[in-house]
């Protein structure tokens, strides 16, 4: 089945990922690719960080007994791997092999909400142009934190609400090549856009529970995965320009025979334009949609 339209059409690669026997994939809550198109997966299973090549072959794993909920995973330009663990309330920077380079936050300790301090169930991370770290502090707080590359807290913004600069749940985020930060304000059904100092610029409201966003900086495209756990809206993937205009989309519930998705939670795209999606709770699977040319 070919999905999408125009220049952005895709075909699901059946049986793409080869998970080793006896591995519990559980919820693949986030995915990232590195410069060699290796796919890093944050999982709530017994092997929390899994690495595959673009053909789906297993490469390596690490983090066993340490990570609980690796809700955010990001691979930097030097292949350093950043893990946001929502349950331990920490952010860690590691080598591709898993060696710890930097830790933000204190394991299993959360500050009082009124302190507006990191972290209370953080959800995602992206690096800025100077290596600064932007972290959505989403499930327990309603904040975005900005850290220096060395880990110094530089700025915090956000609060609970529905107005500009307020959040219901800041879930995942990404940055374009103009220094604009896109935050999936999931439970407000919108994506808010800020400059790198936290100034609100605009928002996209044509979203339905945006879970994750991945931006192609060179081609100035945004890939957004949207879903709803209570089936008020069917899940979908949208390809957009950086003004929010939808260029292509596909979605619909597979169990209803109306699409290929279920509860999509995370998205990333490799250098070939192929899309990777992680789904949780219902089906708990990794999918690959190869771009059709």
Explain the layout of strands and helices.
Elements: E1 2-5, E2 8-12, E3 28-33, E4 39-43, E5 49-52, E6 58-62, E7 70-75, E8 81-85, E9 90-94, E10 100-104, E11 124-127, E12 133-137, E13 143-147, E14 153-157, E15 170-175, E16 180-185, E17 190-195, E18 200-204, E19 210-216, E20 221-226, E21 236-241, E22 246-251, E23 264-269, E24 275-279, E25 285-292
Antiparallel strand pairs: 1-2, 2-25, 3-4, 4-5, 5-6, 7-8, 8-9, 9-10, 11-12, 12-13, 13-14, 15-16, 16-17, 17-18, 19-20, 20-21, 21-22, 23-24, 24-25
> In the CATH classification, which architecture applies?
6 Propeller
N→C terminal distance: 14 Å
Q: Could you say which overall geometry the principal axes of the C-alpha atoms support?
A: globular
Strand content: over 45%
CATH topology category name? Neuraminidase
Question: Percent helix among the residues?
Answer: under 10%
Ranges where pLDDT stays below 50 over 5 or more residues in a row are none
């Amino acid at each position: 089945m070919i999905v999408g339209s125009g220049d952005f059409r895709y075909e699901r690669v059946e049986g793409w990922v080869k998970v080793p026997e006896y591995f519990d994939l559980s919820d693949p809550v986030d995915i990232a690719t590195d410069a060699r198109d290796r796919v890093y997966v944050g999982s709530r299973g017994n092997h929390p960080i899994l690495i595959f090549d673009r053909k789906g072959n297993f490469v390596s794993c690490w983090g066993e007994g340490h990570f609980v909920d690796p809700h955010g995973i990001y691979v930097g330009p030097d292949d350093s791997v950043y893990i946001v663990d929502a349950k331990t309330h920490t952010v860690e920077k590691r080598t591709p092999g898993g060696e710890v380079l930097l830790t933000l936050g204190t394991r299993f300790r959360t500050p009082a909400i009124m302190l507006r301090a990191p972290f209370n169930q953080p959800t995602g991370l992206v690096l800025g142009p100077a290596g600064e770290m932007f972290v959505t502090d989403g499930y327990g707080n309603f904040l975005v934190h900005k850290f220096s590359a060395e880990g110094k807290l530089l700025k915090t913004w956000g609060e609970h609400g529905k107005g500009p600069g307020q959040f219901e749940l800041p879930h995942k985020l990404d940055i374009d090549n103009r220094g604009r930060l896109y935050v999936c304000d999931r439970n407000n059904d919108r994506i808010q856009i800020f400059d790198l100092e936290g100034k609100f610029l605009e928002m996209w409201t044509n979203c339905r529970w945006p879970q994750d966003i991945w931006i192609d900086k060179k081609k100035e495209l945004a890939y957004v995965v949207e879903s709803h756990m209570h089936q008020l809206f069917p899940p979908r993937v949208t390809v957009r320009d950086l003004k929010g205009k939808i260029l292509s989309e596909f979605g619909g519930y597979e169990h209803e025979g109306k699409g290929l998705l279920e509860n999509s939670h995370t998205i990333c795209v490799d250098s070939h334009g192929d899309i990777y999606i992680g789904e949780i709770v219902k089906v708990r699977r990794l999918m690959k949609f190869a771009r059709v040319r």
